[in-house]
Amino acid sequence: MITAPFDVRRRQKFLYEDLYHKTRENLLALIEVRLANKKIVESTLENSVAHQFLYLEAFWIWMLDYTAGEPIDALAPRIASIVDRFKEWNEIDQFCQQEAALEFPDYGPYEYNGAPDFSTLANYENTLQLLSIAILLRDQHSVLRIIHVLRSHRGQDGLFEQLIGAYVEDKQDLDSCILEKPYDTLLQVFYENNERETLKLVQKYLKQWYPAMKGHPRWYDGHLRIRDEGYAPYYGYWAFEAGATVFLLDLDDSQIDHLVYPKDLVDYARQLRKESHHSSVEMKPSAKRERGE
User: Where are the annotated coiled coils located (predicted)?
Assistant: First the structure.
């Protein structure tokens, strides 16, 4: 099998081959460090942070490989193990929350609260990206596991509710997002009945997305921050939630051509739907189907 040159198969122009290999090696090294540190942490808070970064480093390797042009068929089976790490982080974080409730009883008893804080841009975007990728891979089992972790977040964020609407029996229609910009623009897509106007909203969101990510501490402008060792905190800039929205609503994206839009992943999801195929299945018979299915 002949493999296309790197600059042909890559999905974004900022990634070149040496940068890809050195960044991937650095992420793998960071995971080894996190695994070692996890064994010597002295508090549940430190343990929670360690597990959070184990999940994120694995997720960013997946995203980096996607940006580098790895075939989606090869990437698809890997998302379940990343969701495993997402779930493990949440489980450890519950111990942290329980300790805090005992230490500060004036704030009330412990109540379950999923680890990702939706009021923080990095947590919100990272979680939406993971959820949206699972949707586009038609990995229903992973989608439902993510929803279960985030059960405490129900009824708070309009975009989250719309993305999970096909997978729950009690979808809630909300007209706003916890973080308004740029997410309210994408939320409007679900309520717009004119397809031409709908696509304008998607295009508007894609233009707004990257400038709005300025507050993401890890990877914003990562392609400009190349270290002396040759790696960078750049894994690809992808508005996966826009792709999931287009897929769920079965919109015509033939006129969408934007750097951050994962068009081939949307095409992959459409093909799976056409074939009535899922990466994994765990849906109740009464659960709603995606539009177009």
Answer: none
Do 89 and 56 form a contact (C-beta atoms < 8 A)?
no
- How far is Cα 10 from Cα 213, in angstroms, rounded to an integer? 22
- Asked, for residue 186, whether it belongs to a domain, the answer is yes
> What does the pLDDT look like over 166-184, one tens digit per residue?
999 999 999 999 999 999 9
Using alpha carbons, select from 287, 196, 183 the residue that is nearest to residue 245: 183
Q: Which residues of the chain have pLDDT under 50?
A: 283-293
What is each CA distance from 133 to 45, 111, 160, 228, 271, in whole angstroms?
28, 29, 14, 32, 15
Position 286 scores a pLDDT of 35
Residue pair 173/159 in contact (Cβ under 8 Å)? The answer is no
The number of folded domains in the chain is: 1
280 domain-assigned = no
Query: Looking up tokens 């177009």, which residue turns up?
Result: 292
Q: Which domain does 221 fall in, by range?
A: 13-274
Residue 103, domain CATH: 1.10.3920.10
- Domain presence at residue 122: yes
